[in-house]
Design goal:
The complex is a heterodimer. Chain A is an all-alpha fold. Chain A is 86% helix and 0% strand. Chain A contains 8 helices and no strands. In chain A, α3 packs antiparallel against α4 and α6 crosses α7. Chain B is mostly helical. Chain B is 79% helix and 0% strand. Chain B is built from 17 helices and no strands. In chain B, α8 packs antiparallel against α9 and α13 packs antiparallel against α14. Chain B starts with 5 loop residues before the first helix and ends with a helix. The chains are: A mainly alpha, B mainly alpha. Chain B: Its main location: membrane. Chain B: One of its GO terms (cellular component) is SNARE complex.
């Protein structure tokens, strides 16, 4: 193990156990009443941790752990960015025992914080580059399907997909054309039948008119006949005439009977 | 009413109609009743010969008492019985006479119907006569202004012509059909008739005639802008190019499949003959034209 390693390890261990370092705590406690100082140190520590994690991520071989570390870094960054406005408000407060220059300095520090937070590498930069290149290649995919023959080596994978896609598209187009042809034939038949029905109905219109007039005439004739028949029957049925007829008949029979005797 | 011997009825009726010393005028009315009865009895007993005679006599009686309608009706029955007996001349006579009687009544439709019935019965045996009957029937209807009723007659007559393989006559009849359709504004039937005529000309391999026919028919806007017009122009173009596959494809299309079945049968057999000969003829003609110009 080299000296530098030992030094770094010692530093790390000291940092870890700083909270048990009484003197340092006393120093910190001076600023313990100062909320700003406390919060600021917290944020600084968090930034440090995030930077360390970023270092670790860049060295990692396992992609899954890289992704996990990057996710954690991003979460930390977001949290820290939320803390920044709080710090700004605290920085503007006037605290006892701190000179004016330090107050101004605090403000500057707070303003510098967001940049420092954003600067922490969290893998999105490289990811952004990757997605942009893939979108470019997807655009290339679309172009490929319309204009044939862009067989550049970077796009080779996509053109296999695109040729499959194109085949399916052609098959579906052919099926649709067949279906439409069948529909067209059916519509032709319907049109022909409709025309024939139209002509047949035109042919029958004058016949129906003739039937109409003839039936009207027959109906009125029947009505007349019925009325006259009713009158005649009423005349015949009138009871007075009937009784007279019967009485006269009886008288004649009686006379004939008497004559016979 | 008890079953009376139809022979006896016939004898009685005969006596009524025969003039003799004791009888100065024939009693047609009672005779006709007897004759009708006798005829029905004979028909029921399937005695066609006697029934036919009875109907004939009954119709004569009706004529005598100036009842042409009933007379014609009886003649029609007599005609159908004669057909069953196979006496074709009598069939012809009966139906013609019946039609005349109907015309006397002033009823054109039954007159043409009678002729059409006769024609259909004769179509197999004596097609020439049948065609004449059809033509007369169509003429009667056209005179009366009822062309629409004539469509069926035209169709049957065309069928007879095609069976006789008289294709030019068939084509001219189709054109007459188109004219009748034009009179009653039946555009669809008109276009179908014209397309049928063009197809018949092409079937006889008479390309010039077909073209002329198409040009004539194109004068009519309705045909030019119709499905049938488009189909015929495509067909003629295919003939000019000599493309047999194209011709076959067009003949399977819907415009032709909606025509009458006998014309569809002709269309399916297209192209008849040699298409290259048509093109050769055209080339020769072109050569002559060039000579004329120079």
């Amino acid at each position: 193990m080299s000296v530098i390693d030992i030094l770094t390890r010692v530093d790390a261990i000291c940092k870890k156990y700083d909270k048990y370092d009484v003197e340092k705590q006393r120093d910190l406690n001076v600023s313990g009443d100062d909320a700003f100082a406390r919060l600021f140190t917290d944020v600084e520590n968090d930034i440090e941790a995030a930077l360390q994690k970023a270092d670790q991520a860049s060295k990692e071989k396992n992609r899954a752990s890289v992704v996990a570390l990057n996710a954690e870094i991003r979460r930390t960054k977001a949290r820290l960015l939320e803390e920044v406005p709080k710090l700004q408000r605290l920085a503007l407060k006037k605290v006892v025992g701190i000179p004016k220059e330090e107050l101004a300095a605090r403000n500057d520090l707070v303003l510098a914080l967001p940049e420092r937070i954003q600067a922490i590498p969290d893998g999105t930069a490289t990811a952004a580059k990757k997605t942009s290149s893939s979108t470019v290649s997807r655009m290339g995919l679309k172009i490929d399907s319309t204009s044939d023959g862009r067989f550049e080596s970077e796009y080779f994978e996509q053109t296999e997909q695109s040729s499959q896609f194109r085949q399916e598209y052609e098959m579906r187009k052919i099926k649709q054309d067949q279906g439409l042809d069948a529909i067209a034939e059916g519509l032709d038949t319907l049109k022909n039948m409709a025309h024939d029905m139209n002509e047949e109905l035109d042919r029958q219109v004058p016949l129906m008119d003739e039937i109409d007039t003839k039936v009207d005439k027959a109906a009125s004739d029947l009505k007349n006949t019925n009325v006259r028949l009713k009158e005649t029957v009423n005349q015949l049925r009138s009871s007075r005439n009937f009784c007279i007829d019967i009485i006269l008949l009886c008288i004649i029979l009686g006379i004939a009977f008497c004559l016979k005797r | 009413m008890s079953k009376v011997d139809p022979e006896k009825l016939m004898v009685k009726a005969e006596k009524l109609t025969k003039l003799s010393f004791t009888r100065w005028t024939a009693d047609w009315k009672s005779a006709v009743v007897l004759y009708e009865q006798a005829a029905n009895e004979f028909r029921a007993t399937r005695n066609d010969e006697k029934a036919k005679i009875a109907f004939e006599k009954a119709s004569k009686c009706h004529e005598m008492i100036s009842q042409p309608w009933d007379a014609a009706k009886h003649l029609e029955s007599a005609g159908s019985l004669a057909k069953q007996l196979g006496e074709w001349n009598e069939v012809l006579d009966f139906f013609r006479r019946a039609s005349e009687l109907y015309s006397e009544c002033g009823r054109a439709q039954p007159a043409s119907d009678a002729l059409a019935k006769g024609a259909r019965l004769l179509a197999e045996v004596n097609p020439e006569e049948a065609i004449r009957l059809f033509n007369d029937a169509c003429a009667i209807l056209e005179e009366d202004g009822k062309e629409q009723m004539a469509f069926d007659l035209y169709r049957d007559a065309t069928e007879v012509y095609i069976k006789l393989e008289r294709y030019t006559d068939a084509a001219s009849l189709l054109l007459r059909w188109g004219l009748a359709a034009d009179h009653c504004k039946a555009v669809n039937s008109q276009c179908k008739a014209y397309l049928g005529a063009i197809l018949v000309y092409l079937y006889t391999h008479d390309f010039k005639q077909a073209e002329k026919c198409y040009n004539d028919c194109s004068q009519i806007d309705a045909f030019l802008s119709s499905d049938q017009g488009r189909c015929s122009s495509k067909l003629l173009a295919a003939y000019e190019e000599g493309d047999a596959e194209e011709i076959k494809r067009i003949c399977l299309s819907s415009a032709i499949s909606h025509l009458d079945h006998m014309i569809i049968r002709l269309a399916r057999k297209l192209p008849t003959g040699d298409l290259t000969s048509l093109r050769a003829k055209d080339a020769e003609e072109e050569a002559l034209d060039e000579d004329d110009l120079t």
